[in-house]
Amino acid sequence: AKRLGSGTYQWFSPELDLGTQQQLTLRTQLQEAITKQQFEVFYQPIVNNVGAVVAAEALVRWKHPEQGYISPVEFIPLAERTGQIVTIGRWVLEQACRDLSQLREHGVGQVSVNFSPMQFYRDDFLSSVEQAVRAYGVKPGQLVAEITENVLLRDTTASLAMMHKLRDLGIEIALDDFGTGFASLSYLNMIPAQKLKIDRIFVQDIHINSRNAAITRGVLTMAAELGMTVVAEGVETSDERDYLNNYACDFMQGYLFCKPLPIAELIDWLNHK
Ligand code: C2E
Ligand code: CA
Ligand code: CA
Ligand code: CA
């Protein structure tokens, strides 16, 4: 902070300026990526308690002409701030619905799509979902909307109403990154979710980390009593898997089973499994 006199501070530093410049560049490049359709959807299998693939989560990647695949961690947060996530998210939803029939041919009956809060609050959100579902003949139970509890923070009533409308369309709701957001447990009573996704931070080293184990067991018990199923995210080792199996975790997802893959590679993997 630089003192300008009489109590006024101006915040600046070379890094901050560079950051802003980089953000502007990224924003422009994202716009170009949208126009030139440089996005791809990868799919990561979700397995049940006997290791059968029952679903796949759609995860977007940006295939940059020079930099190769760019992780969503690098551009989703900015796209959420600029609103570009609306266009990107709609495209991901369309693509996932389109890919569903191919996935179903290979025994994967359900596809999960991430929705950011920003999409949720758009007037045309529901109609765009309806349109995709209708256009690709998506049946009830075949599409899961992954949302984080943070969606509730802006307008709880409106977001709950939207979730019920999605349910009416036959779309399942999964609470993503459960336990890492800012919502309180009291919301859990109101949210019409069928699935809880336990974040990787609670799954990591669960067989030796007694605090993670305690939290995860608590979530499993609570979910069961509320009639929800649980997906453990980021399962990387067989020790973690075995521990989760012992405590009757319904579904798992993680590098132990498979990384997110382009659809052709996923189908290859499914065929050779
Ligand atoms: P997420 O929804 O929590 O997705 C799970 C992330 O964990 C994915 O990262 C996945 O590749 C990664 N992962 C899966 N298994 C493992 C594992 O065993 N170990 C580790 N270390 N990581 C694992 P990814 O694909 O980089 O996506 C990051 C985040 O970007 C997602 O987190 C989600 O919040 C967001 N995202 C991705 N695609 C979309 C999208 O289409 N729309 C929106 N709104 N957000 C998206
Ligand atoms: Ca997710
Ligand atoms: Ca997650
Ligand atoms: Ca996460």
Q: What is this entry, summarized?
A:
The chain is α/β, with parallel strands linked by helices. It contains eleven helices and twelve strands. Strand 1 and strand 2 form a beta hairpin.
Explained architecture:
The chain has 273 residues and is an alpha/beta fold. The chain contains 11 helices and 12 strands. Strands 3, 4, 5, 6, 7, 8, 9, 10, 11 and 12 form a 10-stranded mixed β-sheet that branches. The longest helix is centred in the N-terminal third of the chain and has 22 residues. It is globular. The termini are far apart. The site of one calcium ion has 2 residues, from loops. This is Bifunctional diguanylate cyclase/phosphodiesterase. It comes from Pseudidiomarina donghaiensis.
Distance between the termini: 57 Å
What is the tally of helical segments?
11
Question: What's the oligomerization state?
Answer: single chain
Indicate the percent of residues in helices: 40-55%
Global Rg:
20 Å
Order of helices and strands: EEHEEEHHEHHEHHEEHHEHEEH
The biggest sheet, with number of strands, parallel, antiparallel or mixed sense and barrel status, is:
10 strands, mixed
Tally of DSSP β-strands: 12
- As residue ranges, the low-confidence spans are 1-16
The share of residues in extended strands comes to 15-25%
Mean pLDDT score, rounded?
91
Tertiary shape: globular
- Structural class, judged by helices and strands? alpha/beta
Write out the distinct hetero groups bound to the structure: ligand C2E, calcium ion
